[in-house]
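User: Hey, my collaborator sent me this sequence without any context and asked if I could get a structure. I don't really work with proteins. Can you help?
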Amino acid sequence: MRVPKIIFKYSWIYDQNCKEWARLAKKDVKSYPSPRKILNYIKSVEKLWNKVGKKVLREISKVTSLKWKSKVIHCYVVGKCVPFSDPLTLPVYKEKDYFIDVLIHELIHQIFSQNLEETDRARKYIQRKYKNESYKTRGHIPVHAVHAHIYMKFFDAKRLERDFKAANKIPDYRRSWEIVKKEGYEKIIEEFVKRVK
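Assistant: No problem. I've predicted the 3D structure and written it out in structure-token form, which is a compact way to encode the shape of the chain:
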């Protein structure tokens, strides 16, 4: 099974824009990491990723019944930002294993977005079943279910629990995790995958 190569990148201009957005949002830019610190950080998270990356990417594909369509995915690392999946962009986190967890979350989004046609029925099913939930909550139910599977297969319940706690800051994420906990990630994945073509 082919999996994409994750290439960690630093772009000075992109990072400077993120720093400016942080300043405009009245965030503390005095503690914004220097380019050198970010480059050193990239080296350390790349080592962590290389220990588990291929196994995790294979498992995401296997458990979702979806193929990776990109051969390469660039992951931009900046000093501070809200992480997002396209272009894949993550900030420097104090805990490097947390960076890996957020990276996995965004890569699950990536495989879904690379397979929009294949997941159309599955996404419509989620939208109908959870129609009373917010759009963001509905979108994160399958993402969090797959991520729970990855936590339990490659990491541990402690890291999964840390993700639950971090989600408390974002009501839509918290609600999505509550649904995954209540219904069980295995069942949500099974119902989703049944509708993947």
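In plain terms: Residues 8 and 43 are 9 Å apart (CA to CA). You can pass these tokens on to your collaborator as they are.
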